[in-house]
């Protein structure tokens, strides 16, 4: 998860369940200045307390040259999630009812979704 980036980014076309051509301007920050090749939907199978659950991300930018796949905390917040960070992990909760949606563990100074 990335708290400093405004868009979800994926570097693998095979992860997309739906993708369209991207016509907007280039991005700054992924690899200096990069033009996404597409935009679409990515489904990620996550693990929350031993249960498998799908995380559906919309408006994900396809950037083949990106060094990592990024989940934008800002986009999660805009969709109604609440994100709580600790030094070991992060918990994504439903803002309206407080239920846990997904968890991410700290791994080499980055929060990675628990798959």
Automatic annotation (TrEMBL):
Organism encoding this protein: Penicillium nordicum
Retrovirus-related Pol polyprotein from transposon TNT 1-94-like beta-barrel domain span: 1-80
One Pfam entry name: Pol_BBD
Protein name according to UniProt: Retrovirus-related Pol polyprotein from transposon TNT 1-94-like beta-barrel domain-containing protein
Taxonomy of the source species: Eukaryota, Fungi, Dikarya, Ascomycota, Pezizomycotina
Highest taxon above the source species: Eukaryota
InterPro entries documented for this protein: PolX-like_BBD (IPR054722)
């Amino acid at each position: 998860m990335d708290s400093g980036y405004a868009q979800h980014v994926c570097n693998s076309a095979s992860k997309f369940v739906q993708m369209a051509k991207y016509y907007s301007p280039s991005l700054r920050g992924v690899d200096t200045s990069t033009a996404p090749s597409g935009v679409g939907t990515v489904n990620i199978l996550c693990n929350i307390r031993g249960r498998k659950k799908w995380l559906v991300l919309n408006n994900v930018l396809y950037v083949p040259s990106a060094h990592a796949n990024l989940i934008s905390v800002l986009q999660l917040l805009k969709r109604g999630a609440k994100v709580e960070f600790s030094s070991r992990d992060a918990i994504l909760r439903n803002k309206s009812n407080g239920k846990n949606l997904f968890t991410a563990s700290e791994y080499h100074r980055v929060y990675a979704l628990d798959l």
